[in-house]
Write a structure and sequence with these properties.
22% of the residues lie in helices and 37% in strands. It is of the alpha+beta class. It folds into 2 domains: 168 residues, Nucleoside Triphosphate Pyrophosphohydrolase; 151 residues, Lipocalin, CATH 2.40.128. The strands form 4 sheets. It has an 8-stranded antiparallel beta barrel. It has a 4-stranded mixed beta sheet with strand order 6-3-8-7, with helices on both faces. Helix 3 packs antiparallel against helix 4 and helix 3 crosses helix 5. It is elongated and about 75 Å long.
């Protein structure tokens, strides 16, 4: 039998109680708690909602969430739900703020909540309840902030509304902002542009097949691309590929920010999205967050590659050398123009180091 949950007014005063499904249908303001658990290195515990959840299934979100029940404190609700969802207890539990939001969900439901936000620390190993949680990871907050900004469709609506404020409230904001200033362009380029979300590539654009990954290992230079803000101010952009012991591909991206006069580097891993004979890859630079790219043209010796992103706005030409032969440039421009890329937008990248 479903338990009743509390609904309140905008001053957080109790106005009644009702079964949970009915509150979503009637858009009543319900009382709830959100929990953000960190480990000692200030990595945030993220959970991925079970695919069986009746809304927001399969999305990444905070450590735990629950509605408050009658005759129980918010703090008690925190501890209860942590045990129910991920099997841990939390130390130094602190409420840091509260907020109200109203948002349309799928299935004709509406979330209208007065949420109390708690943080705490735990080093315990989780024991996931598969009915609630399908996956988890510990991720540095700076990377969560970047990923939410670039791939918001991967996260629950309530998480997106407050993650910046959570970071600030726990006094990590100065460190995060400093790190983000240092790594921002490189991270954006890696996660969003070169390896854009696993969305369908534009119609008429197919991945190279058969593809031989061993021939594509080593260092390559980004010689040309479409213009977009994530790579402005960068040159000498390279990617270095090598095999890991488990068969995945180690990816080292490097570039030079000529405005700040600093070199930057990011290390990740790549896997094939499916058959290794098809040049469709997914890449991660932290945790379980993968994004995809396709090699859509390559020469027999694997010296020159044409790479596509998630739309006709993203295109790159890579080479094992700092200069492409003119016939390769012409050939790849023709290949790109045929399905609909506006090749007049292609810019050349400098490699002077």
């Amino acid at each position: 039998m479903p338990e009743n949950i509390i609904f309140v007014d905008e001053n957080d005063s109790l106005t009644g109680e009702m079964e949970k499904p009915e509150t979503h249908q009637k858009t009543l303001l319900t009382l709830a708690v959100l929990v953000f658990s960190f480990i000692s290195t200030y990595k945030l515990f993220l959970q991925k909602r079970s695919l069986g959840k009746y809304h927001s299934s399969g999305l990444w979100t905070k450590t735990a969430f629950t509605y408050s029940f009658p005759d129980a404190s918010n703090e008690a609700a925190v501890m209860r739900r942590l045990k129910e969802e991920i099997g841990i207890t939390l130390g130094n539990v602190t409420e840091i703020f509260h907020f109200i939001y109203k948002e349309q969900l799928e299935n004709g439901l509406t979330a209208h909540e007065f949420d109390h936000v708690f943080v705490g620390f735990s080093e315990e190993l989780p024991m996931l309840n598969p009915n609630e949680v399908s996956d988890f990871d510990y991720v540095e907050t700076k990377y969560v902030l970047e990923h939410v900004e670039l791939l918001p469709q991967n996260y629950t609506v309530w998480f997106k509304k407050i993650i910046d404020r959570v970071a600030n409230e726990i006094s990590m904001d100065n460190r995060i902002k400093k790190d983000r200033n240092i790594n921002h362009k490189l991270f954006i380029r890696v996660m969003y542009v070169l390896f854009a979300p696993c969305a369908p590539i534009p119609k008429g654009v197919t991945a190279v097949s058969p593809y031989k990954k061993e021939k594509h290992l080593g260092k390559c230079y980004e010689l040309a691309r479409f213009d977009f803000r994530f790579e402005r101010g960068l040159n000498n952009i390279t990617a270095d590929y090598s095999l890991n012991g488990n068969g995945s591909i180690k990816v080292v991206n490097r570039d030079y920010d000529f405005e700040k006069k600093i070199w930057k580097e990011a290390i990740g891993k790549a896997k094939f999205a499916g058959n290794e004979k098809v040049a469709m890859l997914k890449v991660s630079f932290f945790g379980p967050f993968y994004a995809g790219c396709k090699v859509i043209a390559i020469d027999p010796e694997y010296n020159y590659a044409l790479v596509s992103g998630l739309s006709f706005d993203y295109l790159w030409i890579f080479s094992s050398e700092k200069i492409n032969p003119s016939e390769i440039n012409s050939l790849y421009r023709e290949k790109a123009e045929k399905p609909g890329y506006k090749v007049s937008k292609i810019l050349r990248n400098e490699h002077d180091n």
